[in-house]
């Protein structure tokens, strides 16, 4: 599908999803992800674009084709489920079976209730079901239409954390049985990483990057994507050289030479942006008595702790590099340290600390001015 | 007891309610879900009968439906009799007067339906007509019942507009409210009291039916 328009909701998005694949549309509030889902279902009509499902045109602005939602066989799970409150769970599911013979509907509704682990609760109305049970009815109702595509609009946002974990497992199991494209809208990166085969990062209606969760979250195309996938360490540097033999690229970062992943596409002396996920920042022991392991020999950096916030099992630490002054342009390296480790090493504000930045985690991107 | 006046009142209330039911549903859905320039003005105009003294409204209706008005002339040319001081005129006035009583409760209940629920109906493959019958009507039902009861009860008790537009012609325009007034003018307290009691009973019964219906329905939803 693709959709383009200038307003009122700006859109410039394009993506595809294969049968049996889960594609997560991820972005902050107002990034147009729900609008794109609604465009597929026929609940929203952008100015330009097309929606093609199993070689059937559902929408094509050029050919002036725009099938009504009733003519598109999509299964839609709404954010707050949008169950019919005056109908039982069974009736909600059967309501989407207009394409089946009346005699079949009851049997199929029972099958779907069993599929979503709700056998025996068919006669309950939505108000008599818990949030998780309502979500299951909504999924069963979406599947009742025998859809060509399953569309899920933030389906886990209205349930508590414990229920959500359970529903993740159920959806992951369910998807193995479904041979249709599934598009999941979410603003939760972890949710997308857990459930999706590919992620599509959106901002202001524009597709910024599509790829596997691992790829998008460790190799963002631009600093903007890096910020959206919540990488805290995004800095600027300058390319010093490419070592073809060791498969490493060197950059200058505030007078310090860092070795990074081999990225020969970047020109020598060119400014670059780079991102480093926090798990690639390694804390050194204060006074090592043994030789440093290989990882700790890489990109040795020393600094002073200027942010120290305990958040349950982890401590969020901000490190000002040695030699940096207090102006806004000074880089502040962020890392997470398990709380017991932080206590063991007596970390705290103004404590001097040494870390290594693992070269494998340093990802170079086209230069963009930093936004702080 | 003026049975003719009571039957006339019930007849007027029945037809007013019957005509306003479809008009109210269509207008209520329109105002609930459509956005257009001048919507607030239209809604304000519809609400005018709530605050305007009935005699003032009656006066304007009398002038606009009278024999010299375009509407009055047109009606007389096809019906053969004048619109004012007739049951038809009374019905037209009663419909206009009751518009806000019919539309507002229905509009509120259509507004209360979550838009995604209707979208879900479309995504389930339901036709617009099926969505209306299977989802909108059942969910808006308490508001619709409430609007019908209010319209019915309000029409039975209406005095000012009916007197201005219809006068007090027995069997044609003398409703029970006017009959009570006539009896009081004639110092016939017994019959006025009896008719007032009947009116009170009908009003209470109507409200009780509305509450019972919507209350029971609310529990089911």
Give unreliable regions of chain A as ranges: none
- Strand count, sense and closure of the main sheet of chain A? 6 strands, mixed
- Helical content of chain B stands at over 70%
Beta fraction of chain A: 25-35%
Assign the CATH topology of the largest domain in chain A: Rossmann fold
- Count of individual helical segments of chain B: 10
Give the low-pLDDT segments of chain B. Answer: none
Instruction: Give the C-alpha Rg of chain A.
Output: 25 Å
Largest beta sheet: strand ordering of chain A? 7-8-9-3-10-11
Shape annotation of chain B: globular
Taking the sheet with the most strands of chain B, its summary is: none
Number of strands of chain B: 0
Topology:
The complex is a heterodimer of chains A (372) and B (221).
Chain A: E1 2-5, E2 11-14, E3 22-26, H1 33-41, E4 48-53, E5 56-60, E6 65-66, E7 74-77, H2 89-94, H3 102-115, H4 131-144, E8 149-153, H5 161-177, E9 182-186, H6 189-195, E10 198-203, E11 206-211, H7 213-218, H8 223-228, E12 233-243, E13 248-253, E14 256-261, E15 271-276, E16 281-283, H9 294-297, E17 300-311, E18 314-321, E19 332-338, H10 339-344, E20 352-357, E21 363-366
Parallel strand pairs in A: 3-9, 3-10, 7-8, 8-9
Antiparallel strand pairs in A: 1-2, 1-4, 4-5, 5-6, 10-11, 12-13, 12-15, 13-14, 15-21, 16-20, 17-18, 17-20, 18-19
Chain B: H1 3-33, H2 39-51, H3 54-65, H4 70-79, H5 87-111, H6 115-123, H7 128-157, H8 160-166, H9 176-185, H10 189-220
Helix pairs in contact in B: 1-5, 1-7, 1-9, 2-5, 3-8, 5-7, 5-8, 6-7, 7-10, 9-10
